Amino acid sequence: MAKVAEHFIAHDRMTEPGALGSLYEHLPRDISSLRDIVSGLIVHVSCADMYGIPAGMPRPRETQPVSARLQLIQESFAGPLEVPRPPHQRTFGTCRDYSLLLCSILRHRAVPARIRCGFATYFDAAPYQDHWICEYWAAAEQRWRRIDAQIDEMQQSDLGIAFDLTDLPNEAYLTAAQAWRLVRSGSADPDKFGHGDARGLWFMNVSLHRDLLAVANRQMSVWDTWRSATAQDRCLDDTDMAFGDRIAVLIEMIERSEDGLDEPTALIRSPPWIDSPSL
After folding, report:
1. What are the residue boundaries of the structural domains of the chain, listed by start?
2. Across-strand partners of 93?
3. Is the whole-model pTM more than 0.70?
4. What is the pLDDT of residues 230-240, one digit of tens each?
């Protein structure tokens, strides 16, 4: 556990709150209330219409460092984070932004936390929908608990979610490694995994690399530019498939190890559509 605490308590450039970290001081201590607050600070760009956001209102989707996110939150609605914001005075983002913010708050309280890339089963868009969540180390239980920081009361009702969003059931969320191994075993159809029209093994491979980087505490990478992939880039050969198998095994080994991580630099590589990447 020592390495887990050391590696996933320390802030990095994405989770560091900067001067606005003082906003965390008066937030509740319990995870459920904290999750509820985070879910009300951002509007997911794909859900904006549900909240009556005007069609012409800009909806930026770029993932922000938490320090910049907190600044945007204050510009949109100045005040304590625990004060409810009307939807039109929240910031816009995606599932990763909610997860990063919750991760930042937990780390600020010396709770080991990290974000994960994978697939959720509780959305309408696809049986296995591309999704980022937050994990934190529950010391009393000696395990990682998975939290969906995005789903607020409206989405929960709309999706008919009845399970605990602070401890996702195994069947509700698969990490990219779990999903890859499920498909490779022949137990699931790869075309049921994806993001909009982007689906199948090539997209699962993207998620696999992003999850590898996430457990290495690198929440952003050139793999996030997957929309730039050409048709040729989306074709995986036997070598790519075997390499994906190695990544999935390594991620699961990291999860099972007592220290919680084993720096996976040997398997980190750039996507084929990037010439000179900076991972």
Report:
1. 2-267
2. 44
3. yes
4. 999 999 999 99
